Amino acid sequence: MKCPFCHVDNDRVIDSRASQDGSAIRRRRECLKCNRRYTTYERPEDITIRVVKKDGSRVPFDREKIKRGLERACVKRSISGLKIDSTVAAIENDIYASFDTEVGSRELGQLVMEHLRDLDQVAFVRFASVYRQFNDVQDFFEELRPMLEGEGRPAPR
């Protein structure tokens, strides 16, 4: 493993443990040249799932793209990076559990919205407005109606 600071391939593993969701091994490493420490994650190599886009093209599933979308939706919300990471892991686990080789972009977007609705309702509406390409306030209202009717107003924080 090359050190991200000095780019020398000479390190030692200080600590290894399972990640919080158990899907990876977290390793703390120390570079033997510059003595700086860094963390790496080792994940099992899975079957590559492809996302089928609206135009029929296929691209590899990219968990980082999901993470960036969640981070954009959660900007200026009190949601920790750890919660976002665990949500991304849950989405990824659902995809690998539910689909063999391909997932439609609509199903993927719907899955992301389901997890985001549980994480933060404001972030959910932000994501849904971009994903579903709302054109006016009525579109927002139609998306919010099930949440408002089903749960009532949440208690103030």
Automatic annotation (TrEMBL):
NCBIfam families referenced in this protein's UniProt entry, alphabetically: transcriptional regulator NrdR
Protein function: Negatively regulates transcription of bacterial ribonucleotide reductase nrd genes and operons by binding to NrdR-boxes.
Xref: InterPro entries: ATP-cone_dom (IPR005144), NrdR-like_N (IPR055173), RNR_NrdR-like (IPR003796)
Zinc fingers, unnamed class: 3-34
ATP-cone domain residues: 49-139
Keywords recorded for this protein, A-Z: ATP-binding, DNA-binding, Metal-binding, Nucleotide-binding, Repressor, Transcription, Transcription regulation, Zinc, Zinc-finger
Cofactor note: Binds 1 zinc ion.
PROSITE patterns, sorted: ATP_CONE (PS51161)
Cofactor requirements of the protein: Zn(2+)
Recorded name of the encoding gene: nrdR
Domain of life: Bacteria
Cytoplasm in keyword set: no
GO MF annotations in UniProt: ATP binding; DNA binding; zinc ion binding
Family affiliation: Belongs to the NrdR family.
Protein name: Transcriptional repressor NrdR
One biological process term in Gene Ontology: negative regulation of DNA-templated transcription
